[in-house]
Amino acid sequence: MNFEELKIIAPLLKAVRQQGYVTPTPIQELAIPHVLAGRDIMGCAQTGTGKTAAFVLPILQNLQAAAASNGKRRIRTLVVAPTRELASQIGESFAALGFYLRFRHTVVFGGVSQYRQTKALTAGVDILVATPGRLLDLMNQGFVDLRSIEIFVLDEGDRMLDMGFIHDIRRIVAALPKKRQTLLFSATVPQGIRELGSGILNRPVEVAVTPSASTVESVEQSVFFVDKSNKIPLLVHLLAQKEKTRVLVFTRTKHGADGVVRNLARASITAEAIHSNKSQRERERILQAFKQGTSRVLVATDIAARGLDIDQISHVVNFDIPDDPETYVHRIGRTARAGLSGVAHSFCGRDENSLLISIERLIRKRLTVENDHPFRVAPPITAKPKVIYSSSRRRPPRRMSGHSGQRLASTTSPFAFSGSRAR
Q: Which of 97, 142, 223, 256 could form a disulfide with 251 if both were Cys (CB 3.0 to 4.6 A apart)?
């Protein structure tokens, strides 16, 4: 299939070609026809699948088809995203794909002066991309009027819930017209997203290109068992390898990210950290340096697990195993984008084995154990198989096994391991 078969209009096709897009991705093939038809969407797509263009293209086309009223421009489309980085990238997509159309858009988020944002809003825009906090602030000040909204997009819905934005989202939705088209996109669809969708969507079409919480197949995933004290030496060891051309390192905390940068500097490796304590201007500078390749190593907290759209990240390193297994999926989704391959390494300390178990159960696969490094420690011993007898019937015994310290609740578990981890 090509974009012409999706009935995309000529100005958008011209912009699509200039952006280097040849054929639509699966989520674009599935979502675009429904959005063009005016239907509400519940979309599930992992990061790096072309999800943004899946709603930007049909929104621009629908706005073009429906003439706006004369006079001052009113906000006709609202896109709400959880982070500044993601909001900025959505704004860039509207600018690039809508280059040959005459729509105005602006992006508003916190952490910077609101002067330029309010100036753009006062002049009038057709499309507004916003983070929840700054949007509500500007609504309260009278700079944003949502009564003319025709299309509402909630992007990265699961991340919104994770970041505690549910009450903000409900306040925003309450200010929207009842008659509107609503698009809800999420990388995963937990129960909270189902409940949110039932309250804001009208007979939605569900589109999904991958199972919830799946990982990109083209990412080569491995785990290094290492003492916590040797994580920095191991990272230095890996960064000496030439194939590590653009590396994104994840830590659990802001303090940890800064510590990794300082320790790498002692090893004469230049790296920069990005997290919520950085100013917006500083974060933009750091991301730009990483995108342009002037900085090879970026150390980030999970603020960067969503919304970073940087091509050719060769490696993702989980310096700390994430507490939430779904965060692992989003982290490694930063590599292997746009059809490229990628590698994800995870450093597992002795106190992180239970977190690793949760990740492997979620993604339904074992990570390959890397033994060829000077800081290897033995993996945790796998528990001996347990023999379970049924008290109600005489049946042959069933064998169940798992990692040490992990009890398997039943043989109907969605992902039960057997055997021992390869050494």
A: 256
